[in-house]
Amino acid sequence: PVSKKLSRDNYRLNQLKNIENIAIKGLISSKLIYAHEIGIDVYIDIMDPIDSFYVRDVDLGRILGVYLDNALEAVKECSDKRIRFNITKTDKNICIVIANTYNSQVEIPLGMINKKGYSSKGNNRGLGLYNVDIIASKYSNIFKYTKIEDGFFIQQIEIRRN
User: What is the reported pTM?
Assistant: First the structure.
């Protein structure tokens, strides 16, 4: 059973090889490997090679960093610890989905989460998603979606080819 689990886990992490951008791959890899190491069930689905994200690396890195950090923080607070990370590519866009379980006892007002200073986690917080909005607003080809579905908090980014 241990051998089978290691094989399955290595297959999942191996899908990160499809991200050809070294900086973005490094960021995603470090966050998801850390999640795996602390006992979070990490599911990764990146079936096609991703050669370009159509935005500046530093901006996408900041967006993904916030989303992944938030997912890690939320998952630590619940008994069902799962993160799903998916990238799909078409000839017109790249779609990145980060889904995580969360404490469903805490109400998440989706209309408020991007407001400066708003946080369900206490005072002196609430800048991450606000900063994501500022970064995304610099691009006409980035579209963000947030929803809660089937016990998962889901952040989705669609980046259209210019």
Answer: 0.86
Which of 5-28 are b and which e, b meaning 16 or more Cβ less than 10 Å from the residue's Cβ? eeeeeeebeebbebbebeebbebb
Mean pLDDT of 78-105: 94
Q: Which residues pair with 70 in a beta bridge?
A: none
Q: Measure CA 155 to chain center.
A: 7
**What is the 3-state composition of the chain as percent helix, strand, coil, each rounded to the nearest 5?**
40, 25, 35
Task: List, edge to edge, every strand of the sheet that includes 152-160.
Answer: 41-45, 82-89, 93-101, 152-160, 142-149
Q: Are 129 and 117 in contact (CB under 8 A)?
A: no
Q: Which phi-psi region, left, alpha or beta, contains residue 131 (left: φ > 0; alpha: ψ -120 to 50)?
A: alpha
Burial string for 49-62 (b: 16+ CB within 10 Å, else e) reads ebeebebeeebbbb
The rounded Cα 132 to chain-centroid distance in angstroms is: 12
Diameter of the chain measured on Cα atoms: 48
Give the residue with greater pLDDT, 15 vs 83: 83
SS3 58: helix
